[in-house]
Specification:
mainly alpha; Helix Hairpins; 5 helices
Length: 161
């Protein structure tokens, strides 16, 4: 049962990553407003899903952790996609962010607070989105990761029947 849940979670993570690399990005200016609205709605949905998973863990310490892990992965991928979309639609907003892999790399280095400096925000839009991304990382992902580690630690230490 545990192995099935683990494989299902890994498969879902793989599908999320595949979707990140396959969802088309358009440079059509006519749809920019709608894309921005949809992106904000998806971001709000991600925050809500992570919050729901955090509440689930707080309310039921033995609840499966897969949902929390998937929510964190989804949140990181959404910001990577937003960064990539900005780089495509408004060249010059980011320095050295040219591919989806660059965007994922940038989102992960931002999350890890490593910031190698090779990819960075240059324009005001990119810096504004990056501020939101940093707050998301600190508040939402930080809380989720803290609960995930705490739950894993308590489950490892719990006596087995």
């Amino acid at each position: 049962m545990v192995l099935v849940a683990l494989w299902r979670s890994l498969g879902t993570c793989a599908l999320l990553v595949a979707a990140f690399f396959l969802v088309p990005v358009s440079t059509d200016d006519d749809g920019a407003v709608w894309r921005a609205i949809v992106t904000l709605l998806i971001m709000a949905l991600a925050v809500w899903l992570i919050y729901r998973q955090i509440r689930r863990q707080v309310d039921d310490p033995v609840a499966p952790l897969a949902g929390l892990m998937l929510a964190i992965v989804g949140g990181v991928l959404i910001f990577a996609f937003i960064d990539y979309e900005i780089a495509v639609e408004r060249p010059g907003e980011f320095v050295d962010l040219a591919t989806r892999l660059d965007a994922l790399y940038f989102a992960l280095t931002t999350l890890a607070t490593v910031g190698y400096g090779d990819v960075h925000a240059e324009g005001q839009l990119a810096r504004g989105v990056l501020c939101a991304q940093l707050l998301f990382n600190i508040v939402v992902v930080g809380a989720a990761a803290s609960i995930l580690v705490s739950q894993l630690r308590s489950r490892v230490r719990a006596p087995r029947p």
